[in-house]
Each structure stands twice: as structure tokens, then as C-alpha cells.
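Give me C-alpha cells for this 100-residue protein.
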Amino acid sequence: FSYNDNDPVSEDSPAQHQVAGRVSVNLLSGTGSLEPGPLEADHKIFNLLNPNVSLPARPTTYWCSPFKFPVLQNEAHMIRFDPVVQEGHEGVVHHIVMYQ
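Here you go.
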């Protein structure tokens, strides 16, 4: 994260940040609703799911899974992705990284 307490003078000259750092955030915890809103009817939806995974008994496990996206006939843009996490395992999945 980074921020500056002062508003930019213009869109072309944002101020250099005064404070910067990093923090881990569990986006699947908390008491607020995380339910996404509905998509429009013409949006394409597809799921990329890992097979049944048994996690080893250690504090951290990194799991890399390559997926092939379906072939689309027209140029498309990803506008959202939602994690599909088995109920009861929400605290295990703490981040998802996507690469092209």
C-alpha cells in the first residue's frame, strides 16, 4: 500500500507517496457480506477448479495450478473472479494469484 495525505493538484501530477508498506489481508474472513452482485445475462461464466486436494500438516502450503481458459470467438475482458472455496475451508485459502 502507499498513500499521501495531500490531494493531487491535477490528474497529471499525483504527489509522491509519503507512507508505503505491505500487509497480509484475509479477504474471506470478517462479518461483512462477501456475496458478489449479479452479472448481466450476456456475460460468460466458467469455473476453474482444483481437483480434490489433501493439504499436508504444515503451516503453509503453496499450490500452483495451471488452467487453460476456454477459447472465445471475440475479444473479451475479465471483469471479475470469485473464489470457489469448499465450505469450512475459507480460512485455509488466504490468497489467489493469477498470471497471464
